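Hi Y.,

Following your request, here is the sequence exactly as I used it, all 89 residues.
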Amino acid sequence: MPENETQPIVRVVFACTACTAPFEARQILQPESSGTFTCGFCGDEVHSWSGSYDYADWRSVRRPRHRAAWSWETSSIQQDQAVGTRHQS
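Below is the corresponding structure, written out as tokens. Let me know if you'd prefer a different format.
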């Protein structure tokens, strides 16, 4: 991509395999990046990556109490909350 062009914003949704909590992250083209994201609700690893893409701006995706009616409205995870953590390798 030429220097004067900005990268498109790509958002990806991941779900924790242990507790099903949904999260959204921004996918960034960044060669040789790696890291992991851990669920702040149960502590299980949600996603790990290594390669051409990095993931940033993780957000918890709110869901209604009734699981059949998922809401994809997002809310930012506050830095001081232990809702999710991102680790760079």
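The CA atoms of residues 35 and 89 lie 5 Å apart.

Thanks again,
Q.
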